[in-house]
């Protein structure tokens, strides 16, 4: 799986599986870790700890943010995916280096990825009324 930069619209920050399914979050994340066999699903490195990362699709026409997967990933991949947050907390250089290492690419590819995610961010942040589709969670709770 390629390591990409992702953008979550500001209006949905904090609205996620963990916040919406508080009592079931431990069960869900442990199932994700078990499925990943404690190996990052992006860089494939064996890990002692994983992060449960929510994978979203965005329907900008109908304003739907749909959960399509939850994967187990390492801290470095998670930091890179959420590059905007990495910039805020001062780990952006590490994110850049990890992106280039995992994707076996150069700085130009990195700059293009940052530009692309910036454009997506501007578009998605113009939409204020995103609807969350968390129907995938039911699969984890069966």
From TrEMBL:
Q: Which UniProt keywords are present, listed alphabetically?
A: Endonuclease, Hydrolase, Nuclease
What domain of life does the native source organism fall in?
Bacteria
GO MF: endonuclease activity
The name of this protein is: HNH endonuclease
> What taxonomic ancestry is recorded?
Bacteria, Bacillati, Bacillota, Bacilli, Bacillales
